[in-house]
Specification:
By secondary structure, this protein is an alpha/beta fold. The protein has 8 helices and 7 strands. A 7-stranded mixed beta sheet has the order 3-2-1-4-5-7-6. Helix 4 (about 95-105) links the parallel strand 4 (about 80-90) and strand 5. The two termini are about 25 Å apart.
């Protein structure tokens, strides 16, 4: 949440705005943005357990947060619905061309997309790439330039990188003060299969920390 809060500190989102949290996970970003800007949040995720957890948090929130289950490759919203869309570590695991086209379709004129996604920093061997793609069900892994090309093709006129880092550098910045290894983040959810997948995700990310990075893209129509 530190990164999300940091990138939105300089945004001026009006309370009348509607913001989409695309691939909302457990809803922490939805809650954060609702508290920061007092705007209406639409949160959507494909996994029913994530929807359940986010809906429970939204129910206990004093802010306007609507939660839906759905696929971000085919968003259940009308054209030009949102002033802002944020998607954190989700789009890479979809058909990126379809998802970015949906973001473009549902953003209003001059709308802003914040995309926080992993990037390839160093080449993977054939076996490493196959292991990674198979685990996530991905068709490809994109570099920073690859993401920029996809965003431009989806109709975004301005694409900025507002933050960049490697996974290994990010991990070292967040290491415990006494030098001990921090525990793997754990999501308190009821679905044991999903918890197992998330744990495997963290292990795989650590395994390739030297070869992976992330970018925060700010794209505008």
């Amino acid at each position: 949440m530190r990164l999300t809060k940091e990138i939105f500190l300089n945004e001026n989102i009006q309370s009348s705005a509607t913001v989409l949290d695309a691939g909302c996970g457990i809803g922490d970003t939805s809650i954060l943005l609702a508290e920061m800007f007092h705007c209406h949040i639409e949160a959507i995720d494909q996994h029913p357990e994530m929807v359940r957890v986010t809906a429970a948090k939204a129910k206990n929130s004093a802010h306007a947060i609507t939660v839906a289950q759905g696929n971000i490759e085919n968003l259940p919203y009308k054209n030009e619905t949102f002033e802002v869309i944020i998607s954190e570590s989700v789009t890479a695991f979809t058909d990126t061309s379809k998802t970015l086209a949906e973001f473009s379709r549902t953003l209003k004129e001059n709308g802003v997309l914040y995309l926080i996604e992993m990037t390839v920093e160093q080449p993977f061997s054939k076996d490493e790439e196959e292991e990674f793609l198979d685990f996530y069900g991905m068709e490809e892994m994109l570099t920073e330039e690859g993401w920029k090309e996809r965003l431009k093709k989806a109709g975004f006129q301005t694409v900025q990188v507002v933050k960049a880092n490697t996974v290994s550098n990010e991990m070292s910045m967040q290491s415990a003060p006494d030098g001990q290894e921090q525990p793997v983040p754990f999501v308190m959810i009821d679905n044991n299969d999903l918890r197992g997948v998330l744990e495997d995700h963290y292990v795989l990310t650590y395994q390739y920390a030297e070869k992976l990075g992330y970018r925060v893209f700010r794209a505008q129509l």
